[in-house]
Amino acid sequence: xxxxxxxxxxxxxxxxxxxxxxxxxxxxxxxxxxxxxxxxxxxxxxxxxxxxxxxxxxxxxxxxxxxxxxxxxxxxxxxxxxxxxxxxxxxxxxxxxxxxxxxxxxxxxxxxxxxxxxxxxxxxxxxxxxxxxxxxxxxxxxxxxxxxxxxxxxxxxxxxxxxxxxxxxxxxxxxxxxxxxxxxxxxxxxxxxxxxxxxxxxxxxxxxxxxxxxxxxxxxxxxxxxxxxxxxxxxxxxxxxxxxxxxxxxxxxxxxxxxxxxxxxxxxxxxxxxxxxxxxxxxxxxxxxxxxxxxxxxxxxxxxxxxxxxxxxxxxxxx
Amino acid sequence: xxxxxxxxxxxxxxxxxxxxxxxxxxxxxxxxxxxxxxxxxxxxxxxxxxxxxxxxxxxxxxxxxxxxxxxxxxxxxxxxxxxxxxxxxxxxxxxxxxxxxxxxxxxxxxxxxxxxxxxxxxxxxxxxxxxxxxxxxxxxxxxxxxxxxxxxxxxxxxxxxxxxxxxxxxxxxxxxxxxxxxxxxxxxxxxxxxxxxxxxxxxxxxxxxxxxxxxxxxxxxxxxxxxxxxxxxxxxxxxxxxxxxxxxxxxxxxxxxxxxxxxxxxxxxxxxxxxxxxxxxxxxxxxxxxxxxxxxxxxxxxxxxxxxxxxxxxxxxxxxxxxxxxxxxxxxxxxxxxxxxxxxxxxxxxxxxxxxxxxxxxxxxxxxxxxxxxxxxxxxxxxxxxxxxxxxxxxxxxxxxxxxxxxxxxxxxxxxxxxxxxx
Lengths: 319, 423
Known about the structure:
By secondary structure, chain A is mainly α. Chain A has helices at about 1-15, 20-45, 55-70, 75-100, 105-125, 150-175, 175-185, 190-195, 200-225, 230, 235-250, 255-275, 280-295, 300-310; strands at about 135, 225.
């Protein structure tokens, strides 16, 4: 298994030498959404606390670093961490309210959606943040300003972010906290009876998840060069974040990555082949149908299914 | 992978064609010129995106029917339509794909955020991007600035649509001209605007232009309201208390309906409603719903040129191909963008990006199909210097251009009869 992973990594590292700008962009979004999915996975997958408002953390992180960079010329590389911290703070507030008052299931979901909407409305009315029109970033081509004239730089940053998220979530998975989170997901009352501090564990999970997601916001802003409250805080982005781990297998380390490698190419292929004719929206119908099929056939996600398949293969010695 | 395969196929075909055509001297001339058009064809902006796409496709068909690009041996235009799904990340990816599919120029993208996401693609891959619709000033200004400061070599982004600044300037200019012509000069104006991505910059542009250009009236009160409002009675009583001569609303359809009803209900005594540019005050659905309340309302908006025979012909064909829809601002500007591209290609005689940029900069295209202040020309920032709006007034339950004079199809009525004197 180890050598297969190393090989995959090597391929991803040398890949940009063989890819054009378009495929680089596709890979960049695969990595980026895998990164966001992994951050969500920590809270939603391992901890079972479903958030449908993760876009709020992207938005807060993106707006924070972009505002600091535009107003105080602070490098987004530093702003990224401040944005992450701001998102973590928001995550802490949501987590404290939600978990302190024992909101579970749908009620917690509604709480996260409500917070994302509140953030969207506040930012829409804040003059210094550009209000509803949003912020527009001027291209300077300065790497210190998180801007590159070559798509390959963005590729490596996105790849690095994805790998870092895997390392961090992997470390959590192997730690005591990971075990607590899974226990809480499976049966919160039973885990508490066994001495797990569910409140503190869940709070730590949402803070870390929000921090990682918030850092992703900086990449989002500097790759798309503008921020609007409706897109950066909107439900569609939250759904986009959740889809990856769900399709790939939530609560597993590989899930969000696999999900992203399944969904983004699927969307691209359906766009490239079915979005040309006079009938608009056909590609979305096809994408939606494929999505339904994936969820139907792999209700627990693609990775648990694949893992089962791999185990059943007869083992052979090295040739 | 799929892309690589098609790439191999096309390059293979091109190599084959080149080998076969070797004796011909002019083999560098392409038979087809591909243009990528990215619009929000699905999602919340779908209806607009589809209108834009149809407009662009019709322009391509018209140019091909007239013999294609003559200076390039009658090369035919091919439209590569792209769907941004009303998402900025998709807009960027689609732009990349269309360039891979062979687009030598891009147009789009209606939403300023989507256009911004496509700008780096155009700049990095050196593909001229002629923005058909997007009003935010920064789109071209940002690129012009970074070229000026030496961060980028060439500007590949140009725009034919009026910018937010232009919207404000034309609104004030038209109002001043109208007041002068009718001999009625209002002294007090109340500006009311919907506080969203559209209304906010629009109201700022208007106030800025009012300060710069001056007008006989003073803006005595500025009243924002949320979109979508459930009730505007407080806002309207506030406006009424300011004793305005004119109300300048920046609305969306839902708020426009509420506002006009409330103005009539509270019997606000004004000379007229003149919008600095907003939707909701000229659409067929709105006119049907509001009836005589919307009559005489003026709105300074980008509009198709009603007295141009060329535009009328296109409008008739558009109605046929769209199943009865009106050839409007959106479909019109997308159509015009393709016309400008054809004009550019005709003069450039090449698809080399830098030759195209030179040709774009030298553009002086007469008889635009939209209301304009002259031939289409690009200024140093890359914006259409002649981009303009038109003052449209609802007369006899139809939106008619009443100003500027060169494009007017009806005589304007100002001051307008009071709401309660309209029978």
